[in-house]
Amino acid sequence: MKLVLDAEQEDLRAAVRKFLSDKAPSERVRAVMDGGPEEGPGHDPAVWSGLAAQGVLGLVVPEELGGAGAGHVERAVVAEELGRALTPVPFLASAVLATDALLALDDDAARTELLPRLAAGELVGTVAVAERGGAWDRTGGATTATERDGRWELTGTKTPVLAGDTADVVLVVARTPDGPGWFAVDAGADGLTRTRLNGLDPTRRVARLEFDATPARRLAATDATAAVDLVADLAAVALAAEQTGVLARAMELTVDYAKVRVQFGRPIGSYQAVKHGCADMYSAWEHAVSVVRYAAWTADQDRAELPVAASLAQTYLGPAAFTTATGMVQYHGGVGYTWEHDAHLYYKRAKSAEQLLGPPSAHRARLADRLGV
Amino acid sequence: MTAVDETENAATQDYRSALRAWLGAHAPGPVAGPTPEEHLRRAREFQAALYDAGYSGITWPKEVGGQGLGQAEQQVFADEAAAFDLPLYPFMIGMGMCGPTIVDLGTTEQRERYLPPLLRGEEIWCQLFSEPGAGSDVASLQARAVLDGDRWVVNGQKVWTTNAQFADYGALLARTDPDRPKHAGLTMFIVDMHAPGVTVRPLKDMSGRAPFNEVYFDDVEIPAQNVIGEVGRGWQAAVTMLGHERVSIGGRGKAKSNPLEFARLVELARRTGADRDPGARERLAELYAHERALELFNARMRQEATAGRPPGARGSVAKLAGALQLRRAIEVAGELAGADAVAWDPDDERGTELAIAINAAPSSSIAGGTNEIQRGIIGERILGLPKEPQVDRDVPFRELAVGTQRREGDR
């Protein structure tokens, strides 16, 4: 296994970090959060186009389909940077979930039609699997697909759906008479109601989608259930990378503050109570980086190990990132509890990320299953 | 077992397979209840066999009798050794700490005299730093060495001395100048543990075993040529040695017989039926996640070291995480074992083994630098956080209240 980035991957990191600090600094994130220049909270189309121009939306997409032909390690690097900067873009929805689903399924026509446009940022895609309660039901849940005169229609409700109200195309898992199936639904389809939800994390866009005999296109899948599992595992890895970025930035800002904030005549970082807390944050970060590099490496090189690695990544990262973000608020004291300071944004991102693919207990239970306990 | 590392080059892989074959053929099998003497004899024999086969002093330079290889080969040895219960313990301090320090700082005469017998398993070493009054703050130690002609005369007490009961030599840190600040007045010596005036007493720890000792020095004479490094530069010598300690603790393989190993705990869960309890399963998964994360961090540090970035103070992260992991493991073990961890039949070895593991766990949070010291190192050396105000740094040692010494007017 390879746990160290090569020079090219480090260059990618530096380029994305520079782009985000130039085009999507904290002020910009907050402007989008507070109502947005055009699209409303949690989505910044201008930064999204900029990322597309950087060529980082199709890192796992083969070159012949308009992607970069790189891999999951590279995508994890980008996700980490987006997490650090809390960038309000549908990366997880479009460059991770929708992209991975199309690659996991066996529909050449859909791939050829959609992947180049997703990679170019012309279309935003997302995946709708979860239903009420947020669990990823591999059977399609209570959403049904029926075939009428050779055309498929979906009926049911999916929630929460990342970027659900801003996506151009939604890939839905629904129950068919012959088991679970994958479907593509256009944003403007008849009988589709999209409701933007209020999110715990104001930098992430989430919606509920209601389908009422909504026309859908069935996507060819050899094993629709295996595809759900694979998409969930790859998302677990990418989300863990994002959480590592959140953890890293929360730690850095806390350490910087502990060096300059003076109380009782000396910097608070000189007191063991604070210093040791910062040391624990650093330790968590070193472990997180190692886990995420490994998990991303399995996604590229060792798919047999991916299920354990993906569950490991979520089991470790969820609590680690949230604990660190909590420490960030705590060590900033009163100022950390204000709206004006960014600490609450890291806190909210870390908490919502910890729950996004199921609660921590579900990740632990899945890890136990996968370890054969 | 150890996953194949794709960064491992062909030469390292060859080294691994040759070592694996050699260990398979030469590693001593388990002996039921060996006496300490028997254990020591087997350890000496095995160390000599390692030397003959070219596996002793892997990273030591060739001119002192070592193999002249790198950390990669040392790590391969640790990986492969983990599959066996090798009797390396009596030589751990000598090979891991004292020897490498003599390699770094010793005179030609010292290297020629002391290193070959150590490599061949003929002489055993211990390290004499800690005192009852000087633990985390080891620079405040009081053992006193006074120059008398061409020899030093030592008086004082050391504690927590591993292997002193059968050691032939010790690396002793003593105060040679109490008029200078605490770090500046120290000197490191090679002391003959069989010299008149050296008394070794076993110190029983909370697990009921006595792997440590108290060592008393009463007018013990040390020849002047036994100074390691320079007089007054004992602290620098100690830092060199502690750097080797961190490497040898961090790089230590996992003993196969550890009842707190994840696979053993899963076995325990199956035996007690806890594997059907969702809460217990989650705790096992969480334990695995932390254990695996630490393994991956260690693996990443090794890959970075190979790429030219030495671990430095980040070794403290691994040390701290290992200690916390052990605490987590005994919590889970208790959860799984239930009342079996409270009382067991006298002939139930698993019960005894688990009790010893539970009782020995606090040691890893203290030995080799407490968790608090590790967090301080991480905070100050890695994160650059400011130090606490230091009240004793530039004060002559004799004016400090340390150990049994009191400032005038304090009494």
UniProtKB/TrEMBL annotation, chain A:
Recorded family membership: Belongs to the acyl-CoA dehydrogenase family.
Entry keyword Transport: no
Signal peptide from the UniProt entry: none
Ranges for domain Acyl-CoA dehydrogenase/oxidase N-terminal: 7-122
Boundaries of every Acyl-CoA oxidase/dehydrogenase middle domain copy: 127-212
Pfam families the record matches: Acyl-CoA_dh_1, Acyl-CoA_dh_M, Acyl-CoA_dh_N
Protein name in UniProt: Acyl-CoA dehydrogenase
Limits of the Acyl-CoA dehydrogenase/oxidase C-terminal domain: 236-371
InterPro entries for this protein: Acyl-CoA_Oxase/DH_mid-dom (IPR006091), Acyl-CoA_Oxase/DH_mid-dom_sf (IPR046373), AcylCo_DH-like_C (IPR036250), AcylCo_DH/oxidase_C (IPR009075), AcylCoA_DH/ox_N (IPR013786), AcylCoA_DH/ox_N_sf (IPR037069), AcylCoA_DH/oxidase_NM_dom_sf (IPR009100)
A GO molecular-function annotation: flavin adenine dinucleotide binding
Natural source organism: Pseudonocardia ammonioxydans
Keywords in alphabetical order: FAD, Flavoprotein, Oxidoreductase
Cofactor: FAD
UniProtKB/TrEMBL annotation, chain B:
Domain of life of the native organism: Bacteria
Descriptive protein name: Acyl-CoA dehydrogenase
Keywords in alphabetical order: FAD, Flavoprotein, Oxidoreductase
Domain Acyl-CoA dehydrogenase/oxidase N-terminal as annotated: residue spans: 13-122
GO cellular component term, pick one: plasma membrane
Keyword Transmembrane helix: no
One GO molecular-function entry: flavin adenine dinucleotide binding
Domain Acyl-CoA oxidase/dehydrogenase middle positions: 126-220
Cofactor(s) it depends on: FAD
Family: Belongs to the acyl-CoA dehydrogenase family.
Pfam family, one: Acyl-CoA_dh_M
Coiled coil: none
Residue ranges occupied by any Acyl-CoA dehydrogenase/oxidase C-terminal domain in the UniProt entry: 232-383
